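In this supplementary section we document a worked example of the pipeline. Step one takes a protein sequence of length 285 as its only input; no multiple sequence alignment statistics are reported here. Step two produces a three-dimensional model, which step three serialises into structure tokens for compact storage. The input and output of this example are shown verbatim.
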Amino acid sequence: MLVRTAERPPATDAVHFPWLRWRSVSLGLRDIGSSREDLCLSADESGGSDTVFPLGEPDLYLTFAAISTPQDALAFARQHGLLGEFERGRFATLGVIEPAGIWLTHAALVARVVQVWERLQLPPAARRASLRECIHWQAADYVVARFQGNITIPIAWQGENARWLKRWKPGDLEGPARLFIADEVTRRLYRRATVQILPRDFGDTLQQVLTPADLLAGIWTQVAQLVTGVRQARRCEACGQLFDVTGSRSHKRIHDSCSLRLRMARYRAKKKVEARSNGTKTRKR
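The serialised model returned by step three reads:
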């Protein structure tokens, strides 16, 4: 993976990644130039801010991938902060404002990468059948990824990644899927993250750390960790949603919140049975 130095200096605490969360964030129409108004998330700087550590939440990238509406984006921003787009490009002149469309675009990108990664984790037979739904050979020298919403993303053709076409067998699905993931993650981290060498746990060895320059880069850093095996995720057997199990017990199969909900449901069911039993005994007397 090629990662260039970020335009903005990386966080000083590379491991814990401190980020500013504005206390007052709202959603509304804003002028973004060229006589155009767009639905934007904006922070009231006079309301102050707090320092948070969003990467301390292992499921951050999955929560972000689930964003599908501007209201979802607002809820995420109020909990974790803005993405950092207000400091980049033409948005830098608007103040602390980020178009909601930017949020939805990046959330969809993360969701697609995670979706292809999850397909690659399936057993061989199921894996191939699943990958056929999104990886397509248009011709012997043209491979694309297709997603819901008529989204088509070229993976390899004579103009780009042509060398991979010579390595893959015709009809190969796993190779193009892995290249799609690699290209997407690399592209999103380009100029947004920095590789740093830091002491490991204050010990006598060094470690390589990928340090994000903003929250969006932090989210993509977690995605990079997922697809390279540093992080692990699986489907919750109770609710069916993906959840991060990095560092958890190897047999963990359910969200903590789902586990608590099921235990409470069993407890209430048990109490109902006991109440009925006690009621029956009282009537018999």
